[in-house]
Amino acid sequence: MSAPLVLVTGAVTHEERAQLIDAAPGVRLEFTERAGTDPDLLAVAEGLVGSPDAVELARAPRLRWVHSWAAGVDGIAADGVLPEPIASGRVLLTAAKGSGAAPLAEHVLLLLLMLTRDVPRWQRAQGERHWDRYQHGELLGARLGIIGAGRAGHELTTRAAAFGMDVLQVRRGHDRAELEALLTTSDAIAVTAPATSETIGMLGDAEFALCERHPYYVCVSRGGIADDRALLRALRSGQLAGAGLDAHSTEPLPQDSPFWHEPHVVVTPHNAATTRATRRRGLDVLTHNLAVFAAGGITGRFDGVVDPSAGY
């Protein structure tokens, strides 16, 4: 009986390759830039590491397991909907869940500090060698509303409490009243939720109109959870005091996007969790899952299993 084939896509260092090969004796690993590069290998692959699209999945009839390098799986899902082989449960989907949770939480606080203290103003003053002292805000005593109660939301709750912030969270399955309470009482709103059919577009004009305390808005998980046009209107009307945007509905953010130059907006290039430690933690999840796959196919105890009905 031939060894099962697992395709590993994307850039992988020699050290990472060695770690993965050592973890999966009896499994044939093939490394390629993209799953569709070699259709003959794709046709016999039983496992695939990466973000295959629907066409690639259709060309892999023997596939039993897909693993996403990322914590989220929106690179595989189209508009929050997973392809049929995964949605039906015929193909197991795992992901590097939680690998970037800590730096994501840190980035939320970084953006809130930049916004509440208007750090860009200090940066402009430094460039002009201008001594510009002014009164600014602080985080102590402010209420942070977190949309998303996964690992990043948990890490953010812990860190926000250390800053003396009051935290309110809503999670999957919340009712409308919970979301409205968060929007009406928060001084800052952070989105750590994944992009799913349930979350995409969940914040629009009606939701931002409830923001009575003119909060700051920060998104570090996935763009599109807030409708871009509604977000822009809320910023320009003053309904929102400002925004810190690391995740965007279109990436890279187009050069003509108004968010680049909008006052009181800090843009970062979906870079919040791009750390060596995030990569290492994600590689450890994959190493574990490869060992489980090598030992017993898809019947073992995988880490980061994605619930097809929830989309994450």
Helical residue percent?
A: 25-40%
Q: Major beta sheet, specifics?
A: 6 strands, parallel
Give me the CATH architecture of the largest domain, please.
3-Layer(aba) Sandwich
CATH domain class name of the largest domain: Alpha Beta
**Span of the ends, CA to CA:** 34 Å
Beta-strand level of the residues, as a percent range? Answer: 5-15%
Number of helices: 11
Cα gyration radius (Å): 21 Å
CATH H-level homologous superfamily name of the largest domain: NAD(P)-binding Rossmann-like Domain
Order of helices and strands: EHEHEHEHEHHEHEHEHEHEEH
- Report the strand count: 11
Describe this structure in words.
Helices cover 34% and strands 15% of the residues. The chain has helices at residues 14-23, 39-44, 54-58, 84-87, 101-116, 119-127, 151-162, 176-185, 205-208, 228-237, 276-296, and strands at 5-9, 28-32, 47-49, 65-68, 92-95, 143-147, 166-170, 188-191, 216-219, 242-245, 265-267. It is α/β, with parallel strands linked by helices and 312 residues long. The chain has eleven helices and eleven strands. The chain folds into two domains: 5-99 and 276-296, NAD(P)-binding Rossmann-like Domain (Rossmann fold, 3-Layer(aba) Sandwich), CATH 3.40.50.720; 101-267, Rossmann fold, CATH 3.40.50. Strands 7-6-8-9-10-11 form a six-stranded parallel β-sheet, with helices on both faces.
